[in-house]
């Protein structure tokens, strides 16, 4: 596999690569061997010109008139996204959302593994719930290092998110997914992504109202 210079891939393009990979994987399971940018555009809701530009940063991935080989694209994007490498995940906040994420446990990618969960509620700390032992946030750094955690997912409400994220950052973890929409302060070396369910729902309604003729792919 070609050694791609990941730092030269624009951020906007990098954000779309998981979307491409997810939909291409679905197509592969359905027996689709090749696809053109227009067809992929219909599925992902990303303009075909943008898809071709994104792919151009990675070299010659397809051929004019033929399109793209689905299996080859999956191999390329999996390599770039390191999706074939095991990544251990910690969930911070084991309420309803935390439990839902833990129960899903990223079945679409067996290399994304939820290894431990944390909370501050004394009523559940030290108990095994939904198959997960609930650790105290006071022990986050020790447990995260013992279990080689690479990613933290925070489901802590906005009013307590900064305190929780500070603990995660102090443990040495630099990749954080935050389900609280309000921004928190983190050092420049931290890769932070936010998921705002309200924004996602409003976006979904917009597409549902205005793009009825085009099939939508699930993107998050």
UniProtKB/TrEMBL annotation:
Keywords: Cytoplasm, DNA-binding, NAD, Repressor, Transcription, Transcription regulation. Pfam families: CoA_binding (PF02629), Put_DNA-bind_N (PF06971). Residues 82-183 form the CoA-binding domain. InterPro entries: CoA-bd, NAD(P)-bd_dom_sf, Rex_bacilli-type, Rex_DNA-bd_C_dom, Tscrpt_rep_Rex, WH-like_DNA-bd_sf, WH_DNA-bd_sf. Residues 19-58 bind DNA. GO terms for cellular component: cytoplasm. GO terms for molecular function: DNA binding; DNA-binding transcription factor activity. GO terms for biological process: negative regulation of DNA-templated transcription; response to redox state. NAD(+) binds at residues 93-98. It is found in: Cytoplasm. Belongs to the transcriptional regulatory Rex family. Homodimer. PANTHER family: REDOX-SENSING TRANSCRIPTIONAL REPRESSOR REX (PTHR35786), REDOX-SENSING TRANSCRIPTIONAL REPRESSOR REX 1 (PTHR35786:SF1). Modulates transcription in response to changes in cellular NADH/NAD(+) redox state. This is Redox-sensing transcriptional repressor Rex.
């Amino acid at each position: 596999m070609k050694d791609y210079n990941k730092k030269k891939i624009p951020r906007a393009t990098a954000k779309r690569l998981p979307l491409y990979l997810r939909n291409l994987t679905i197509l592969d399971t359905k027996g689709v061997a090749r696809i053109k940018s227009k067809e992929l555009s219909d599925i992902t809701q990303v303009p075909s010109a943008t898809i071709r530009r994104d792919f151009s940063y990675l070299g010659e991935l397809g051929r004019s008139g033929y399109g793209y080989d689905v299996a080859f694209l999956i191999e390329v994007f999996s390599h770039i996204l390191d999706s074939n490498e095991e990544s251990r995940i910690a969930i911070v906040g084991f309420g309803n959302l935390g439990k839902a994420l833990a129960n899903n446990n990223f079945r679409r990618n067996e290399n994304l593994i939820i290894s431990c969960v944390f909370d501050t509620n004394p009523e559940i700390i030290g108990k095994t719930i939904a198959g997960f032992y609930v650790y105290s946030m006071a022990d986050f750094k020790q447990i995260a290092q013992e279990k080689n955690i690479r990613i933290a997912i925070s489901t802590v409400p906005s009013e307590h998110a900064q305190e929780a994220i500070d603990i995660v950052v102090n443990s040495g973890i630099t990749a954080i997914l935050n389900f609280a929409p309000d921004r928190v302060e983190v050092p420049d070396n931290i890769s932070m992504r936010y998921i705002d369910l309200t924004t996602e729902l409003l976006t979904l309604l917009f597409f549902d109202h205005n793009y009825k003729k085009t099939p939508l792919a699930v993107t998050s």
